[in-house]
Amino acid sequence: MIDSGFQDVLGQAEKMLRDSPFQALHRLRVEQSGDHVMLRGNVESFFLKQQAQETVRTATRGIEMINEVLVDPTRTS
């Protein structure tokens, strides 16, 4: 079960991804796994993976984040 603190963090992280100027980040998912935040999905470059991580890190406020975003250079936005 997601507690209200995690809901706030997940909601903020998802909003930050949706508000990103990088369209590829809009497709990513932010999920809770135990006491961690998981960032998941696919992007076409390591640059976008890093952008997603830094965007979500701002919202996690010290909660451990695991970046499981896969880089697939054949994927297009």
Walk me through the structure.
This protein has 77 residues and is of the alpha+beta class. The protein has two helices and three strands, in the order αββαβ. The protein has a single domain, classed as Histidine-containing Protein, Chain: A (2-Layer Sandwich), CATH 3.30.1340. The protein is globular.
Note the gap between the termini: 33 Å
Low-confidence stretches: none
pLDDT averaged residue by residue = 88
Please state how the strands of the largest beta sheet are arranged side by side.
1-2-3
At the fold tier of CATH, the topology name is: Histidine-containing Protein, Chain: A
Number of helices: 2
Secondary structure blueprint with pairings:
Layout: H1 4-18, E1 29-33, E2 36-43, H2 46-60, E3 65-71
Provide keyphrases for this structure.
single chain, 77 residues, alpha+beta, Histidine-containing Protein, Chain: A, 2 helices, 26% strand
Question: What's a quick, concise take on this entry?
Answer:
39% of the residues lie in helices and 26% in strands. It is of the alpha+beta class and 77 residues long. The model has no long low-confidence stretch (mean pLDDT 88).
